[in-house]
């Protein structure tokens, strides 16, 4: 009950400066939801960045982003090939039918890093392939190498892609490849392609 003046009119009571003001419940709810949205957005952003630049394994549809390789990937012209077993400096591999072959390779180039590596469904129908974007300096060397290979007679017109001393693919190069894009295909299924991609990266 408010104090009364002598004339019956309620007296004015100044507010207590030490009293705590109650914040409306709806305002608290809005603030809490705002914090959750901001935090959630931040977490999402971190996850998306991690997805494209992680040093971990990748799967179909993933991008590695720029990555230094743990070991060299060789790109070399095929000098000769013959059925297994391999001898001397010949490297093991397979032809397009899955038959074991041995490859004798000429000098080429090696990759120590990539601009990007992707595992994606083949646009040619069926299977999964690996697409590698080269760094600018490597792209220039790759264009020069494929120009030389495309003008050679078989089997010198084949480009051997070497991962850990194994020829994982040896496609025929019909024309110089400019633009710095290297494609590895071989009728891989999703598991085979992702295993090979992670073998290249780690």
Descriptive report:
- The protein is an alpha+beta fold.
- 28% of the residues lie in helices and 30% in strands.
- The protein has three helices and nine strands.
- It has helices at residues 25-53, 136-150, 190-201, and strands at residues 67-83, 91-94, 100-105, 109-114, 116-121, 128-133, 159-163, 167-169, 181-188.
- Strands 1, 2, 3, 4, 7 and 8 form a six-stranded antiparallel sheet that branches.
- Strand 5 and strand 6 form a beta hairpin.
- The longest helix is centred in the N-terminal third of the chain and has 29 residues, at 25-53.
- It is globular, with a radius of gyration of 32 Å.
- The N and C termini lie far apart (79 Å).
**Counting H and I runs of at least 4 residues, what is the number of helices?**
3
SSE order, one letter for each helix or strand:
HEEEEEEHEEEH
Quote the average pLDDT: 79
Helical content band: 25-40%
- Whole-Å distance between the termini? 79 Å
Are there runs of 5+ residues with pLDDT below 50, and where?
2-15, 26-53
What's the short story on this structure?
28% of the residues lie in helices and 30% in strands. It has 202 residues and is of the alpha+beta class.
Task: Summarize the topology.
Layout: H1 25-53, E1 67-83, E2 91-94, E3 100-105, E4 109-114, E5 116-121, E6 128-133, H2 136-150, E7 159-163, E8 167-169, E9 181-188, H3 190-201
Antiparallel strand pairs: 1-3, 1-4, 1-7, 2-3, 5-6, 6-9, 7-8
